[in-house]
Amino acid sequence: MLDPRIAEALVSAVRRAAKSEILPRFRAMGAEDIRAKSGPDDLVTAADLAAEAIITEAVSDILPEARFLGEEASVGNPALLDEPGAPGWCVILDPVDGTWNFASGLSTFGVMLAVSFNGETQFGLLYDPVNDDWMTAHKGEGAWHNRRGGAPQRLQTRAPERLPDMVGYVPLPMMPQQRQSKIAASFPSFRRILSLRCACHEYRTIAAGHAGFALSGTLWPWDHAAGVLLVQEAGGHVAMLDGRSYGPGVRDGTLLAAASREHWDAVHAHFTPLL
């Protein structure tokens, strides 16, 4: 288990980086501060790069024995993607999750940080810089919503179990292109299907009881390690569609996070034939 004092120090480091590097750039960037990586919807901004640099330096002081996997560092060094599955401690960071939203002036973005040990996530942090609040989970210790100056509140998943009453997240453009039409045609089976373009807030809303599930088409560890632990510790069930357990070293397949095992089974039965 990660020492709670180390976890607190990591939370403080993320909050400082957001205050100094992310929020001052929100709705204040020029074209030179934003560029595309793999495509027009895969962006990196000056805020991503600056925040990752600040947090990387802080982690080297707080947990010096840990390896570090930052989303932006991995662009120039893909071998870093193997770090979460290796023995020992690893810190996994998405400095601005929901970069497209951030660059577009939308406030649905966050910072995601996870700490794994021997390939298993031990601590997760999902931070909302705009509201300066954060959700955390320690493995085996539950999930908590923290607000500045307030007492932490324990999180508990809850959602209607019938598909017609269920709200969920499906990133349709990230699903196999040849299957997107069939997947989209099945959306009326649910109360509402959304995509926030921000894994941080999708996982937060499931853990807080406001959504029933999230289906994920890509498995970058910085998008899922912290959120999966949060949902699990709030009472949810998370697994790959083929039944495998998820860990930050898993790189292939489709991930399904749900408010309970019953929710997972129902959504799994609906989407598996389509995928």
Molecular structure report:
GO terms for molecular function: inositol monophosphate 1-phosphatase activity; metal ion binding. Belongs to the inositol monophosphatase superfamily. Its cofactor is Mg(2+). The model has no long low-confidence stretch (mean pLDDT 96). The strands form three sheets. A seven-stranded mixed β-sheet has the order 3-4-5-6-7-8-9, sandwiched between helices. Strands 11-10-12-14-13 form a five-stranded mixed β-sheet, sandwiched between helices. The longest helix has 19 residues, at 4-22. It folds into two domains: 4-154, Fructose-1,6-Bisphosphatase, Chain A, domain 1 (2-Layer Sandwich); 163-274, D-Maltodextrin-Binding Protein, domain 2 (3-Layer(aba) Sandwich). Helices cover 31% and strands 26% of the residues. Helix 6 packs parallel to helix 7 (221-233). It contains eight helices and 14 strands. With 275 residues, it is of the alpha+beta class. A hairpin with a 5-residue loop joins strand 8 and strand 9.
